[in-house]
Amino acid sequence: MTVLPDAGAGSLTRTRVYAGWSLAVVGTGLLTAVLVPLHQGAAPTFEAMLFLALAVACALVGGRWPALGASLLGTLSLNYFFTAPFHTLAVESGLNVLTLMLFAAVSASVASVVDSAARRRHQAGRARAEADTLAMLNRRVLGGEYAEPELLALARDTFGARAAELAPYDTAVPAGDTAVPAAARTLLVLRGVSLAPAERRVLAAFASHVGVLGQREELARQTAAARSLEAGNRTRTALLAAVSHDLRTPLAGIRAAAETLRHHDARLPAEERRELLTAIEESVGRLTTIVADLLDMSRLQTGAVVPLLTAAVPDDVVEAALAGVDADARRRVHVAGPLPAVVADVALLERVLANLLGNALRHSATAVEVTAATDAGRVRIDVVDHGPGVPPDQRAHIFEPFLRLGDQHRGEGVGLGLAVARGLVEAQGGTLHVEETPGGGLTAVVELAAAPAGPAGPAPAVDR
């Protein structure tokens, strides 16, 4: 952080001016007291050099006027104590008169030159500090390193203010504070400091950057709102398209079966009636799954899912998850048990495994394995299928709502199954991702906290 030098060092502080005058008066007296006993009566060349050095020192400490005062006092001391006749201001030799005049002129000139050089050095240092501050502002603000609070804190520290804040444009600013326009109808106010015009220019740069940050944050808010609206529109469009297709299919099946039974029930053989009733049951089951997925996704998006975490046994949960699966498909599921207990909500975990097992059974004509392993207090449950799998570049998208890869199984749901499964797992403090099955296929990996040893019951809370 760059702290700007005092803008008034073209005008020295009162402390330095007082110190310069003190040095001129006290230094002249002490120098005279030391040199008088050593003076041998010759021309005061050596003494003049020492008084000249004192004048230069006064210029460095207190500026031009203390240096000129030291020059005058040195001239008087040289005349009175070191030039014959001694102890009088009269001068006998014209050479001594010329010497005193030259000393006065040279000492005054040197003091003025030293004072001017010191002022220019300070001004150059201040200009460099201002340039560094402005360059730093441009780099960090445009680079996005500063937000509005950090920039206000930087302005406060740079100018040594008590506080820096934004205020309405019509705010009354006390005499001891400084204010410059920032953004539309806004002031940047420094509390407890009154700045010189040169410092106000730098403060104006801070104010303009504060305005830029405000505009950037407003644009960011508008962009985020627009993206949220766009995402909502995409979701509604996808939902409408998915529901319009996936609800129509089972509803059409139910209607066709019901009309057939109503108009031809008496003439239908018992076997055909059973098939129609089975078709109705299956269509109702698909509708129930669709509605359940939609309700679960709505609850997840609104944060309404509050899991009841207990020590759950995955073997029992898998068995419950397969209750709605036909016997042929159930026989294709092999559980490498016993599976280690996990911290989970049993009902939610059952929904997750039902989703994953149903997905695996739909895409794999061979066996589906369920395995588990414990590592570092976590349990990894794998649902392994040997179907066609998912290309690596598409795996990151399979958990997106309303997304289904390919056109297979269009009647099975609205594409919410994996999205709901991930949301339910994360609500229980776990994770869900997919990996490629060695030899081909897809493995869904659920990771949950391992249940502590002991009787089942309420489990300790886990971070979600």
Gist of the model:
The chain is of the alpha+beta class and 464 residues long. The protein is built from 12 helices and 10 strands. Among the domains are: 7-126, no CATH class; 247-300, no CATH class; 308-449, 2-Layer Sandwich (Heat Shock Protein 90), CATH 3.30.565.10.
Could you explain how this protein is built, in words?
The chain is α+β, with helices and mostly antiparallel strands and 464 residues long. Among the domains are: 7-126, no CATH class; 247-300, no CATH class; 308-449, Heat Shock Protein 90. The protein contains 12 helices and 10 strands. The chain has a 5-stranded mixed sheet with strand order 5-7-8-10-9. A 3-stranded antiparallel sheet has the order 1-3-2. Strands 4-6 form a two-stranded antiparallel sheet. Strand 7 (368-375) and strand 8 form a beta hairpin. The protein is rod-shaped. Mean pLDDT is 78; it is low at 406-414.
